[in-house]
Amino acid sequence: MAFLNTKLKLNTGAEIPAVGFGTWQDKDAQEGAVSEALKAGYRHIDTARIYGTEPACGKAIRESGIPREQIFITTKLWNNSHHPDDVEPALDASLKDLGTDYLDLYLMHWPSAFARGDQLFPRDSNGKAVLAKEIDYVDTYKAMEKTLKTGKTKAIGISNFSKAELERLLKEASVVPAAHQIELHPYLQQKDFDEFHRTNGIHVSQYSPFGNQNEIYSSDIGKLIEDPVLNEVGKKYGKNGAQVALAWGIAHGHSVLPKSKTPSRIKANLEGDFKLEPADLKTVDDVDKKIRFNDPSSGWGWNFYSDLEGKKSKL
After folding, report:
1. Backbone angles phi, psi at 86, to 5 degrees
2. Does the pTM exceed 0.90?
């Protein structure tokens, strides 16, 4: 086996495979991509209502012949379903599209609530997102807590919260989030925030583990995966910069969510599950640039990441 098949523990006691397969973008390619990922050995699939990829993920999982209990499935509640009365119906819709009767992890995708209704991105005449400011993310999360009792999800968590938002949630909710999915990579390491999660028993899952590799992220710096430090470290192990970035995240106890539709890259990303020696881990720790690539604050009317490193966009 060319990868370690590392598994990490959630605060529920469940195990989450360290390398997950991300399914954001390229909606029409995802059924084939997920099929390739499962053949390669992935057992952790990450999707979301807004991605529109739940049906493709579900079909690929069913047709793989791999028993459901061997695959860790995460999906996410979208912003237009934050009203407490909408949470369980939204979960039911995701379960139906995925073709399963339970999730391993259900995340609140963002702390911001959009206007209720069928529109995924309700916008005003200026093109700004229409927020439902009367809907509090704590109340949304409390509705998610109730879904644990139904058995429809085994764990709940969050995504894209600031430290203050997470602190308030910990104070007012009953269930500590099992996971927090955030942008995190060698160029945005957020060491203090990472330690805060560790102290509170919250697993960190890294989206965009390759930083500015995604073409939607405008950036005036070189690609993270081409960073000479990462690639020099990789030479010792016969690995490339992307694989080193993944191994770095796993070494810090995070799950990582690379995505690709190219079979060779799908396999190569799974082989990013290898062990870095302590000195090499420290070398990658030192490349931190505190640069955040994903911040929709200005278009959504919500000040995301207000107290975190790499804050980029202003309202």
Report:
1. -95, -10
2. yes
Residue 114 near residue 80, CB atoms below 8 Å? yes
139 burial type by CB count under 10 A (0-12 exposed, 13-18 middle, 19+ buried): middle
Q: How many CB atoms lie within 10 A of CB 221?
A: 12
Q: Place 218 in a pLDDT band, splitting at 50, 70 and 90.
A: low
Residue 314, pLDDT score: 65
Q: How confident is the model at residue 27 (pLDDT cuts 50, 70, 90)?
A: confident
Contact status, residue 89 vs residue 61, Cβ threshold 8 Å: no
> SS3 of 315, please?
coil
Residue 238, H or E segment: none
pLDDT tens sequence across 238-260: 999 999 999 999 999 999 999 99
Contacts of 80 (CB under 8 A, 6+ apart): 86, 114, 115, 116, 117, 118, 119, 120, 122
List 42, 51, 106, 187, catalytic entry: 51
User: What percentage of the chain has pLDDT greater than the value 70?
Assistant: 96
Token pair of 82 as six digits: 């934050």
The per-residue pLDDT for 196 is 98
- The pLDDT of residue 29 is above 50: yes
First to last CA, the chain: 48
Question: Furthest-apart CA pair in the chain: how many Å?
Answer: 55
pLDDT confidence of residue 265: 95
Q: Which helix (H) or strand (E) holds 85?
A: helix 84-98
Sheet holding 156-159, edge to edge: 21-22, 44-46, 72-77, 105-108, 156-159, 179-183, 203-207, 255-256
Stretch 75-86: mean pLDDT, rounded?
98
51 included as an active-site residue: yes
DSSP bridge partners of 8: 16
Rounded-to-integer distance, Cα 150 and Cα 154, Å: 9
Long-range contacts formed by 31-34: CB under 8 A, 24+ apart: 31/56, 31/57, 31/59, 31/60, 32/60, 32/261, 33/259, 33/260, 33/261, 33/266, 34/60, 34/61
